[in-house]
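pinning this so it doesn't scroll away 📌
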Amino acid sequence: MPASDGRFGGAAAAALNALMDVALETAATLVTACRRAVDAAAARLARDSAKDGRIDVELLDRGQVLAYDLASVAGQVTAAQEMLAYGERGGLERLLTVAFAGMVAADLAGRIAGREAAWDAAATLAGDDVAAALRTARDPALLEEIADRVVRDADLPRELSEELSMVRATFRDFAEARVAPVAERIHREDADIPDEIIRELAAMGCFGLSIPETYGGFAGGDGAQSENDLLSMVVVTEELSRGSLGVAGSLITRPEILSKALVKGGTDEQKQRWLPAIAAGELMCAVAVTEPDYGSDVASLKVTAVRDGDDYVVNGVKTWCTFAGRANLLMLLARTGTPQDAHRGLSLFVVEKPSYPGHAFTHDGERGGTMTARAIGTIGYRGMHSFEIGFDDYRVPAANLVGGEAQLGRGFYLQLDAFANGRLQTAARALGVMQAAFEAAIAYARERQVFGVALADYQLTKAKLARMAVLIAACRRFAYRAAQQLGAGEGQLEASMVKSLSCLAAEQLTREAQQIHGGMGYAEEFAVSRYFVDARVLSIFEGADETLALRVIVRRLLEDALVAA
């Protein structure tokens, strides 16, 4: 039992008492060693992938296995570095920090094992101090102590101001009262999101987060979001996703993407025309970028928009257009140049359409042409529906070209900033799903008796619950930090890293939560089965994990390594 000062008595607990004294130092030792290993591997891969002083994609692709491992671990190490400040708060925060450092170091050691030459000799986690720190950080007694604490209170310590704590409480209450009660029905029936939920979220200001106050939103005059704005977005998105990813967790994303593009490149007339209505929730938005043959390879998109008098005539097929049925506005990225123009031949359009319920619609354009759509059946992430849309000589007014002729061929670049926000938001969505699954696992483990003992009292269950807590704490801390960096005009790399880390963590965590439920975890009557299938989409959309790792994260790491060299 704990002694009166919160420490542990008895010889059997001496090791844990010692660990609690040196926990943060232990974490710092491991993080330093891991960072050294990552930097050494990045320097080696940068040398192997460089051509004429720049990273050559063809050369980089020859080492994709190492590059992917490096991108994944680099995100973990960066998160572990951010956790050190969290651990300085003491108590549970310190234990979570050292346990995460141990998880990261063990993962890195496993990726290096047998491939030391590829990683570079300097990348090995050598040294007696590192070995001792790793033993301490991976002691099962540490996980047991974390579990004992989080089973009593699954709401892990956060670093939020009083204002953000109030925002969180407001949306947590809303999600529990309005979202969670309909989540299971909407998932099982693949039903539409109730209009009243959308109206209430609009009244709460959810759709104007990146829209300047001049146009009815909450961002600064130039549309730039402050650190507090972005932290609010993360907090709100997490709480709504905890209620349901498909019902509420993703509603903010599409208005954010279109709004940022309009603020950045739209004409004054376009801003006045659309932004106030988007902010008020009167116009719902969807994004039409991906095509059946091209997802992350945006430069190869084929849907065309050809000028004809006062219109652009659109032909081709877009897919994975989430919420496109309910939406009034589609943000369409189409080719106005030649295929050889690649990114520079793409332009952005706002396509106006009526709102359609259900899983299919056909719309005859007022100026001519047809838009035909069907929802794609999915195993999870239901409610918003993801559509495949075919455009057949569909005419869009030239006035709907975002930015007018001055922005012709610059559509790809107009949406870049929004992608970073979307990745950060996806990390927040993952956090919400993780928190919901974590709470469900704890509740079930407390109640379930196995061989006459509560499941939560078994050491292995404790280890599972503790690792869940560690992952949530690390991803949340990293998401908060990335929000601060984006608010300061930086953080593009960190937003990609936290998206990758959090989405993979959500898959792992929801799987373990389902496993703790045993057979009931496979039953649809338990929400944990929904969390599991919902989590699976997270590392696919907003940038598939492999593409994010190989084309965004590792390229930036290697470019930085070249500069450092």
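📌 and the second one:
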Amino acid sequence: MTEPRQGFHRHAELRRLLHPESIAVVGASTRPGSFGERVLVNLADYAGPVFAVNPRYPRIGARECFPSLAAIGQTVDCVIIAAAREAVEPLVREAAAAGAGGVVVFASGYAETGKAERRAEQERLTAIARETGLRIVGPNTIGLVNAALEARATFMTITPIPPPGPCPIGIVSQSGALGMALAQGVARGASVSHVLTSGNSCDVDMADYIAYLAEDAGCRAIACVFEGSAAPRRILDAAAFAAGCGKPLVVCKMATGAEGAEAAMSHTGALAGAHEAYQAAFRRAGAVLVEDFERLWETTAFLAKAGPPKARGAVVLVTSGGAGIMAADAAEAEGVPMPQPDAATRAVLETQIPEFGAARNPCDVTAQVITNPDSLALCAGALLGHRDYGAMVYPQVYSYEATAQRVPMLEALSIRYDKPVCMVWITEFLAGPGSAEAEASGRVALFRSMRSCFAALGAWHDRAALLAAPPVPPAPTPAVVRAEAAARIAAGGATLTEREAKAVLALYGLPVVEEMLADSAEAAVAAAERMGFPVALKVDSPDLPHKTEAGVIRLNLADAAAVRAAHAAVLANAARVTPPPRIGGVLVQPMIPAGVELVIGARVDPLFGPVVVVGLGGVLVEVLADTALALAPVDAAEARAMLDRLRGARLLDGFRGAPSVDRDAVARAIVAVSRFAADHAETVAEIDVNPLIGAGGRVVAVDALIVRRVR
């Protein structure tokens, strides 16, 4: 098997293939509907020469048809092979010998069949690419489009993709059909620079395409439809490269199921699935992820038009009070602030807005703009000029002729203040006046839902913050700490006891609850009296990772009698477990006062290595599913950002009189667990700190679990 490739092909290596000055179609045909006939039709408007190659025909229409590539008599940049699988390999070798820049292979029936002999055929194509430097797209691809050249190197009957307008988007897709489906947005005024589909990726793949578009001046942003990869690091490296080039990359990650997220002993194993790991990896690389395919285009188009944000706040300008309420709800749900205008701005608004309107944010200019159209522009200008607003959201409730006239007005104001305007198309008149004008605008971004608009604004700010201050890895763990932790892990069993797990994590700075191990009821009473009541009792066993479910934990024991009764009860419940668990004794711990319960965990993802996850809810974390995940290790800033992403993050700031939780202290705990996970990824499979209880400045781990890796 060919070794996985490191790095990616750069723009100069792919230019002849993806921006060709000449194209040859091998397998050109006169048979209607054949690949060789369809691709010639699609290349009718291509700016350069197209050479037909097929020994069966002396001519195809008015075009001379050559018996071979060599017979053309000149070097061709891009060779499209529209031939059966059995003929592909010798044709690829012929293209390499003729000095072609690259080939596109439509034929299917290779590795996707799962057959060993077909995988071997694909491997041979990979070997040719590496031996000769010939770049290969496919096999099993529907082809490529370079809109600037009107080079539609595909056999699909596609919507004609014209030369791009302002802010063109490059589309990269593992799924050819979905890539071409996105490109059909040109029918409503969208601007597309490229459609690059990868197929089986024997050579050129998604990472190469992203890196190519990152350096291509004809592309303003990249929309990526990504299914998955056995070696995702390359595409993440390409994403980071795009971020370094200042080229926005928006990814719709499909196949979001539990690939790699096998049943595990800890909460972490259930929460840190493959999709969450992909999200964390792309986020760290500077890419924006969208949850739905439907949001991919409009988010990418917005980032292509927006430029860097000047302020985090958004202002909403409406002609309908109901649309303002919708916008405020979506802004709150996506965490986008909507500050109120200052007195000077409000004074300008009040000169234009009737008393039944609203000179605030959302700003309701009311339907009076029909009789006083200048008021809309004056209010929009006053708000866009406000220092606290980085973007304007303009919900278009109803489409009529005046709507189209508002787009150039909004565009001019966007240019003047260098801030984007988002037009949210609420009306069901989807192709009504104004929609195509907004789509084609270089400054006004069109959205089809309020929630997707504010999600894009939130992602815009998050991306800018990441690029401004990329994560800084924590300082290396002192060697003596790593060695001591490794020794304790090695001394434990397949699953460390709670006491062993907390002792190891404490070496990394995790604050843990005080405890004593008792071997009898009287020893437990003595420990409780020494600590002070109330206390908690837990059976200490590597075979009982979920103590609540096993009934081997008792809380709020207020006196010696309660401790004796609890000691007997937890041991009796442990004895009912099958097979009988190993018991090291009973842990006695002081009761930690109530606070916000969190979970911090880590696991080794099969694709990305160690990841750390934080969630709200303690034992209910899987029910609440309020978690944030990052690749381990994280620094303090990234740990705080994880807390900010939690839906219930406001609980940390105090709720109904409860004290706020020291976020910095929680962040330090996340950093500690992440460093431990990264340092011991070869020997530790899962870590679960649950719960971590926070109240005021006190943050303490009450329970912990460490599961060793099985070799």
